[in-house]
Amino acid sequence: MKKHITLNVNGKDHELLVEDNRLLVDVIREDLHLTGTKKGCGIGDCGVCTVLMDGVPTFSCLVLAIQASGSEIVTIEGISDGNDLHPLQQAFIDHGAVQCGFCTSGMILSSLALLNKNPSPTEKDIRKALSGNLCRCTGYQKIVDAVLAAAEIMRAEG
């Protein structure tokens, strides 16, 4: 059975007709064509499908699209300003925190949620915030360094 829902994704409302069992990750990728949200394990272990739902990092592979109706969803595509990258995106590039790129959007969105709550995190805070996101390439230190650098830039920009 299909239901009408409204998803607010990256500040824009989308009216959709979806099946009851359709996952948010599939709607984001297939219907809205926002492919920065990756599809990985499908059981909430890897974090590549992370989006911000009402500001909270959420595994979109564990959320039905109908459950997200009425929430504000932010994907990696929604944090830059046109061609201007978000400070976190730029810091990931500058600090070599991007290797294969598969985990990057989830890492950045989880980091953004942390920095929105705690603009001066410690390395321990960052590692805890990223604990639901797996990376097989970087060893995490470059990611932590990038988040610390972005935090400094974001504080300076006020």
* Assigned CATH superfamily of the largest domain: Beta-grasp domain
Question: Could you spell the SSE succession in H and E letters?
Answer: EEHEEHEHHHH
CATH class of the largest domain: Alpha Beta
Mean pLDDT: 96
Number of strands: 5
Helix/strand structural class: alpha+beta
In short:
With 158 residues, the protein is of the alpha+beta class. The protein folds into two domains: 2-77, Beta-grasp domain (Ubiquitin-like (UB roll)), CATH 3.10.20.30; 87-157, Orthogonal Bundle (DNA polymerase, domain 1).
Structure description:
The structure is a single chain. The chain is α+β, with helices and mostly antiparallel strands. It folds into 2 domains: 2-77, Beta-grasp domain (Ubiquitin-like (UB roll), Roll); 87-157, DNA polymerase, domain 1, CATH 1.10.150.120. Helices cover 37% and strands 17% of the residues. It has 6 helices and 5 strands. It has a 5-stranded mixed beta sheet, with helices on both faces. A hairpin with a 2-residue loop joins strand 1 and strand 2 (12-19). Helix 3 packs across helix 6. The longest helix has 17 residues, at 141-157. The radius of gyration is 15 Å and the shape is globular. The model has no long low-confidence stretch (mean pLDDT 96).
Task: Explain the layout of strands and helices.
Layout: E1 2-9, E2 12-19, H1 24-31, E3 50-53, E4 56-59, H2 65-68, E5 72-74, H3 87-94, H4 104-117, H5 123-129, H6 141-157
Parallel strand pairs: 1-5
Antiparallel strand pairs: 1-2, 3-4, 3-5
